[in-house]
Fold these 4 entries.
Entry 1:
Amino acid sequence: MEDNQQPHLDIELSEEIAEGIYSNLAIITHSQSEFVLDFIKIMPGVPKARVKSRILLTPQHAKRLVKALAENLAKFEQTNGKIKDIDTPFPMSFGGPTAQA
């Protein structure tokens, strides 16, 4: 292998995983040895939400993820304009009608 070539890694993506999971809330916790990212979907008028996906990362991988997200957000904003930052608390009602049985 030449010095300027990167090792090749084949990554497989199943159809189920390729569909993705929608999340509108992420909760991040950590211990001394790992970061836990819980991705949650909250629905309007529904008082209960489930974790849809949980990702465990080492602290080093969490730091790489933060760097990669920052780089991708910067590229996105260069192309699409600044993303509006919302400083208000996450709305639990979404402003819509509440569910009734």
Note: The radius of gyration is 19 Å.
Entry 2:
Amino acid sequence: MSAFQNILTAVENGVETITINRPDKLNALNKQTIQELHQALAEAETNDLVKIIIITGSGQKAFVAGADIAEFANFNREQGQELSDSGQKLLFDFIQNLSKPTIAAINGFALGGGLEVAVSCHIRVASDNAKMGLPEVSLGVIPGYGGTQRLAQLVGKGKAFEMIMTADMISADDALTWGLVNHVTTPENLMAKCNELASKIITRSPSALASAIRSVNANFADGVNGFETEIVEFGKCFATADFKEGTTAFLEKRKPSFTGK
């Protein structure tokens, strides 16, 4: 595993926890942190010991309180477009398209780029003191890491417009009601809840989970027919050892032992 300055990684029982560790900056994303997150996730994707990934922030004040504005305050139009383009490809699209399930453990503030990290993950769990928002228009800019797209996919066009246009933060309870997060729990139980979800998912077929991720994502990809993708991925499952094991275990009335092959 690589050595990092701004993140911490730990693997236990098939679950890798990646912690953004810039507490003095409320875990704000800068260029180096985005690069380190990409590297850690790329390594987790190819590590056979890792089945599930949890992303969180250090401490209880912030998951990620936005991007490091000082890095791009003086950018021009071309530099701004490149910032968005490279960041989406390197991290946010990368998270969404990982073949391994990702869970965002939202502890405290998830603002701007922080919320965009969370909505890139497959599942979100928030502590009850979490605050979520996209404040970019108050800075004269818009969300540039996929926030205008993924937020609307989760909460609907009207709610997305409200969050983006007011730049207001919403509570964890509102986020749950709106469908932005899957679960809300206390700060003390946040990681336990994420690991509880992980412990269920980890017993399922890794190859089928990867197919499910590709199929769900296909519905939101331009020019892609999600139903056709599902048909293809469904068929591919029949050629896997996991399918043979899963159906055999069911017929033999035992728990399956999946290999991801």
Note: The CA atoms of residues 96 and 253 lie 35 Å apart.
Entry 3:
Amino acid sequence: MYPRDYLYSREHEWLRVEDDLCVLGITEFAQQELGEVVFVELPEIGQVFDANDELGTIESVKAVAEVFTPVAGEIVEVNDAVVDDPELLNEDPHGEGWLIKIRFSSADDLKIMMKAEEYEEYVQSGEA
């Protein structure tokens, strides 16, 4: 269910590392917990964040959830398709439903991320 080449956070974000960029999104688990997504607010290109900063929000019919960045860096791209059509998060959270691309400033931030197998165990453990 979870792409093996992604990294995962305890806050249910995923990262796909592409050289010095990370593509960030929310996991299948997160979107299932949220339910039908109706609104997505994302940062502007050029904004700089520290690791674990809140960078946006996702509203569903059930709740509002904050999105955090596991890595420090600068936003270089925002997925306007998700802003225009929030249902993409429900339809394809690990693909077309990506949220932002961030140029990360330290690879050390990636060390705390979980591999897919670890994340699956985390979700199944009930701690999530």
Note: The chain is about 20% helix and 35% strand.
Entry 4:
Amino acid sequence: MSDREKYWRANLKLMLGLLTIWFLVSFGCGILFADFLNQFRFFGFKLGFWFSQQGSIFVFVALIFVYAWQMNRLDKRYGVDEEEQP
């Protein structure tokens, strides 16, 4: 397997992992498990409501930063990173 194929597989694995987390938080916590989570309070709001209104957005933004950080590491590992020009 070539380095390009390994790089692409690692990229897909990262994306699928982050998309799975995003799905579980947005759809799972915001819709499927909202009734269960509403037993708990977070900053005065029911937790299921909070996830559907705010929490999934916060997690999505955090996942963007995680993706950028992990892709920089992946780029360096496979030698396709952007080097700083003097």
Note: The longest strand covers residues 41-42.
